[in-house]
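Convert to structure. Protein one:
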Amino acid sequence: SFVHPLDLLNKTTAQNPLGGIPVGMTPAIVDYFKSHGVRVMLSIGGITYTKAWNDALAKNATQLGKNAALVAKTLGVGIEIDYEENRSPNLAGLEQFIRAYRGDSLPYDPSGVTHAARLTIDLAAGDRWLIDITRKATAASAPPCCMAACRRSSR
């Protein structure tokens, strides 16, 4: 399920934690797949939502990350960052998003038991796309919270 970044930012609240999520992604749907051994993740963005990612990160990257964490905990799913800005990605905003997502309540879980702790980033295949994001994600100087989040997603 692809989540629109601005909907996640503007419509998700503590009172309505699923307000920014596509209507077909319900707890019942998630539970059905999980009961059959399927790992469920929501993808925020995609190529269609690149401008929306840019706008949401510029508006309030920290709140976007907090809202993503709220949705992940509410549904018991992982989150994939599908930010496909190839020209000039907002790396500072992306780092704020990751730090806010991890916060105090969703630290990296190497065991994989905590579904909501699964935070991945799509770095694309090869070396011709998303270069700046890939460099940031794989840099030795990246903060531990980013390195844990910036594992190459399998597609």
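Protein two, convert as well:
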Amino acid sequence: GEKAALKIRYFGDFYRTLSVEKPKRIILTDTESTVNLCRSFLNFNNSEYMVALFLDKKNTLIGRFDITDCRPNSVGVQTKKLSLKVVESQCSYVILVHTHIDVPTLPSESDYITTRKIANILNTLDVELRDHIIISPNSEYSMRTSGDLKDLWA
């Protein structure tokens, strides 16, 4: 009767839930894979924009945090909020990515200072900064790959 119909519907819904494809895991192992992912969601408007990508020990993306106060040609980093999000995510690694609205994508002195500041904060949380990548509409720049701030990538 009615109870049997409810059970059949319940198990049908349960089976459909199990058979739905799980989202693909996103693994970020290099600059190219990170840039390709970020180009899918970053906008190049009139302000610079920064995100932190959180990775587990297998380099699987487990979270993202928008950490900027957007202003033209400047990025204000919310370090307290970033620290909280890093702890909440239980990530092992962080990749910083930010936009330059025009070329060149070369880091500014402020970019280096911000990178070092965030790396120091992450170190106190036993989290490794993997890279800081700058993306413009037509190019990208990896601080790690370019050999900048060598002491951070040891």
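The first helix runs from residue 2 to 19. The mean pLDDT is 83.
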